[in-house]
Amino acid sequence: MAVTIKSPREIALMRVSGQVLANVFLELEQMIRPGISTKDIDEHAARLIAANDCKASFLNYKGFPASICTSVNEEVVHGIPDRRRVLQAGDIVSIDIGVNYKGFHTDAARTFAVGQVKSEVLALIAATKEAFYIGLRHARQGSHVHDISRAVDEFVTAKGYGIVRDLVGHGIGREIHEDPQIPHFTQRRRGLKLRPGMTICIEPMVNIGYAEVEWLDDGWTVVSEDRSWSAHYENTVVITDGEPELLTVVK
């Protein structure tokens, strides 16, 4: 496992990337409403990223055909933006974005309600975000990767939801996906010890039903196997000698 420790200069570049990403989400939140297509969201995100001297990390990554991922309702992650996919009142949409600034990436995801949604769906979105912050408590030097995993799993499972196991968090920096992997479910061993300068993405994906997922024929879109709705929340985190630093929230 080749885990890189980022220098202060590298982390400074990632801070710029992360703040661009965080502000893109603020802009996108204002446009999400019934009648808008997921392609509209993708195109607006692409303009915002380019306007800030950055690149969309996901565009053409292993052949992915868009700048961001837009996953609606039972789609867990990696949904491809489409002009024909028009959001309806009561939907939810999970948006996953990577931003590259001068060769350094950050990655984050949010799930948004479209108009009025059912109370149980709002509870799912809130619990997924809370699961991230519960895992974040263990993202500090001296803890281990799987301390994060266990904390997220115990919280989500106690709520009666399914925590996705086929997809995990990851390291990030010069590459959008680096070591180590960050599972969100309990492991037998404690895993890698966290050290200052590590940069990781914690990103619980939570299904209102069962944990199992499957891939659609487009080769990208992941959906819950039972077609229950799913939420996703992610931030890029720097391990420090004190409190973890979140790069992808507005400061």
How would you characterize this protein structure?
- Helix content is 28%, strand content 24%.
- With 251 residues, the protein is α+β, with helices and mostly antiparallel strands.
- The protein starts with 7 loop residues before the first helix and ends in a 5-residue tail after the last strand.
- The chain has a five-stranded antiparallel β-sheet with strand order 8-7-9-14-15. Strands 1, 2, 4 and 5 form a four-stranded antiparallel β-sheet that branches. The chain has a three-stranded antiparallel β-sheet with strand order 3-12-11, with no helix packed on it.
- It has one domain (8-246): Creatine Amidinohydrolase (Alpha-Beta Complex).
- The radius of gyration is 17 Å and the shape is globular.
- Strand 14 and strand 15 (245-246) form a beta hairpin.
Radius of gyration: 17 Å
Alpha carbon gap, first and last residue = 32 Å
Q: What is the string of helix and strand elements?
A: HHEEEEEHHEEEEEEEEEE
CATH architectural arrangement? Alpha-Beta Complex
Uncertain ranges: none
Biggest sheet statistics? 5 strands, antiparallel
CATH class: Alpha Beta
Provide the CATH topology.
Creatine Amidinohydrolase
Broad structural category: alpha+beta
Number of domains: 1
Helix count from the secondary structure assignment? 4
Strand content: 15-25%
Give the integer mean of the pLDDT values: 97
Give the overall shape: globular
Query: How many E strands?
Result: 15
